[in-house]
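Chapter review: from sequence to fold.
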Amino acid sequence: MESVDLRNSVLEFIKTKADTKFLKLVEALATTYQENASINRESLDEYNVDINNAIQEIENGDFYTQEDAKKIANQW
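The token string follows.
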């Protein structure tokens, strides 16, 4: 379904069938979506750099095992 068709379908549902519970869910979803959109990376290149850096850290042994993480968490 194309974006325009999907938008129209959702709007029609909201106009004709949506109750308060549904509208509150949609509002919460939209708010969360907007908040998350603002923290997205600026570009695909930046994303790829982050991935490559993470792979390098793992290859260098710079990571915690699940057991290490449990020990650290127990110290909190």
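Two observations follow directly from the output. The chain has one domain: 3-62. The longest helix spans residues 20-37.
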